[in-house]
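Sample 3 of the quickstart, ligand magnesium ion:
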Amino acid sequence: ADPILSVDDLSVAFETYEGRHHVLNGVDLTVDEGETVALVGETGCGKSVTAKSIMGTLPRPPGEITSGSIGYDGTDLLADPDAHERVQGEEMSMIFQDPMTYLSPVYPVGSMMADVASYSGGKSVSWLGVLKNMLGRRTNRSEIRERSIELLDRMRIPDPEGTLDRYPVELSGGMRQRVIVAMALINDPTFLIADEPTTALDVTVQDQILGLLRERVEERNLSMLYITHNLGVAREIADRICIMYAGEIVEVGTTEEIFDAPLHPYTRGLLDSIPKLTGFEGDGIDGQIPDYTDPPTGCRFHPRCPAAMAGTCDVEPVESHAVGDDRAVACHLYEDGMSFGEAATIAAE
Ligand code: SF4
Ligand code: MG
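Result:
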């Protein structure tokens, strides 16, 4: 069967006073029906930009989609804005990290503005837009109320009816996020995009929310794109994992494959930085995400890559290579179908 979502060669640039930021570069991504795919990478790697492009909430300008297509259930959403609007909030729904932050009076304006200024901040505007869209389609007030109570109950919120009358600031972070999940489910979507919905929560609450999401996914055969910087979370929720670095997908594999046999040096670095028993979240990779106004030539990861081959990695653009059925890796080490062991030996020479 065709995937329900198929992102093909998506490139996005941002125009700012500092120059043109080439944020996404040829992103390919698919989600099958009933499948949960995790998009994993560091903060600033382009995960949210990918999500917003799919949802149609990318602020344009300053954002600009410079190439690619986003196929959803047989329609190219980029070529047909009407279709995009139609699916938004109805068939496709989105859960943000903590959208209530933007609606809450207890946060200083400065921090909200700072958030809006960094382009992930398009969030506040887009969230309200999506919400209005969702609610606008539910004209029957008592029906909305009933559905809301039912969903809050499904999200194991005590006193769902009373909760309807409380302000977000009166709820704990975990309860707030449950409300958000309930809101995202209110139109019974077939496709869900979750952008780091559990990041601000403690581990216990995070596990509960992941559990509730998983439950819903199975119950309704939902398809989901789950965005996170945390590979541990991805392992809990996803069937398949796409690793993103600096606006490019560098590796794709089933969750087992990514954990049992990571191929890309970046994936290996990420795995090394999974919090161990100490709870310390170390950064397994030196350096930081590159400047998008002038991304590194060749492989975007080469300035940080322990296996980089001078004369190749800093010069030759990388393409994604299929490795087996469901796997792909974008790294010069695997160009001739080499194993990591063989590749590592060559890289070490
Ligand atoms: Fe490292 Fe080269 Fe592979 Fe890039 S292409 S990840 S620099 S080995
Ligand atoms: Mg983000």
